[in-house]
Amino acid sequence: MRDLRKDYVLDKFVLVPSSSSVPDAEEKPDKCPYCPGNESLTPPALLALVVQDGMLQRLSDSEDSVVEDWSVRVFDSKAPVVTTAAAASYSEKPLYSEPAYGYHQVVVATPDHKQTLPQMSVEQWSNVLVVIQDRVRWLYTQKGVTYVSIYVNSGQSAGSKVVHPHLDMVTFSSIPPTIELEAEGFHRFMNENGKCPACNMISVESSGPRQILATDSFLSICPWAPTYSYEYWIYPKRHVTSFSKITQKEISDLALMLRATLGGMSKALKDAPFNLVFHLSPEKKNSRQIHWHIEVYPQMSAWSGLERGFGVYVNNVRPEKAAEVLGSACRKELAGLVGIT
Ligand SMILES: [Zn+2]
Ligand SMILES: [Zn+2]
Ligand SMILES: [Zn+2]
C-alpha cells in the first residue's frame, strides 16, 4: 500500500510506501504471467475479450473457470501503485498525505508474447481500444474515481517490467498535476479567445511542416515545442473532450492511426523505448475540460540537470525535422496497412 504525499508547497503527487506496508517482494516468475495458459499467475480477469465469428464477446473469469482464447485480458495489477483497500490515513500541510486510493488494472494487449505494440494488427489495436473504452466508462462510475490515467511503458528504460505487450490504467481521487495544468491552460485560452486551443492548433498544424499523418478523424503532429526528441501527439480532429464518447468508426480509425505511427516510429527510431499516454478530461461535473488526445514520448536520451532541476528542455531534434523523418516512415507504414504500394 502507498500514501499519496504532496510537496510542502507544490501540488506534486508522490506515491510512497505506507508505514504499514511490506515492500513488494521482487517476484521473478520463470513463466510470463501475461501469456495464455498462465492465467492462474494473475488475479482473475475482470474483462476478457473473446472474438468469435467476428463478434466481440465481453466475458470475465469466475471462481472456478478461466476464460480461454481471449484476445485482450484485463485484471487488477499484482503490484498496484494505488489500491481500493487503502487505509484512511490523512495528514495536513505542510506534511500533507492521503491514502493512494484507486484502481490499478493491467490490459494485456494480445495473447502473442513476441509481438510488440507497434507490430500488432490494426484489428487487434481496435480490440484494445474497445476494451479501454469499456474500462474507462466503468471506472468513472466508481466511487473515489476522479481521473483515469491510461499509459504504456515500452522498453526497460521507459519503466516496463514485463515484456509482454500491455497497458496500465490507474485511477486517482484527484486530478493529476499535468492534466490540471493542461485544463487550466485550455480554460484560460477559451476565456481569452472564445475557442478551444487544440481545435485552433489543429487548424494551424494541418498540412503544415510538423504534420505526420492525417486519417479521416485523427491528426498526428510533432508539437511546436516538444519535450522529447521525436515526441508526437494524436488528436481527434473534431472537438471531443472524452474518450468514452468516441464512436466505433472513430475507434477503427484511431487503431489505424496508432498502428501506422507506432509502426513507423519504431522503424525510424530502431525500436527506441517509449511511453504513450492518454490525456482525457476529468469526467466530474463542473471540472475543466480538455480536447482529449494521445502523447507519445520516445526515450532517446537521458535528462540533464536543466530538465530535472529547472523544467527547461534541451531538444536536439527540430520538430520539423522529426516530422519529416516520422512522416515518411509512417506514410510507408500506412500504405502497407491499407494495401497501397
Ligand atoms: Zn507473455
Ligand atoms: Zn477542441
Ligand atoms: Zn496533453
Strand order of the largest sheet: 4-3-5-7-9-8-13-14-12-11-10
| Cα Rg | 20 Å
Query: Uncertain segments of ≥5 residues (pLDDT<50)?
Result: none
At CATH's second level, what is the architecture of the largest domain? 2-Layer Sandwich
- For CATH, the homologous superfamily of the largest domain is named as HIT-like
Overall number of structural domains: 2
Structure annotation, total helices: 6
Could you give the count of β-strands? 14
- What is the succession of H and E elements? EEEEEEEHEEHHEEEHEEHH
Bound molecules: zinc ion
Q: Name the helicity range.
A: 25-40%
Helix/strand/pairing class, anyone? alpha+beta
Please tell me what the overall shape is: globular
What separation lies between the terminal Cα atoms?
53 Å
CATH class of the largest domain: Alpha Beta
CATH topology of the largest domain, what is it called?
A: HIT family, subunit A
Mean pLDDT: 94
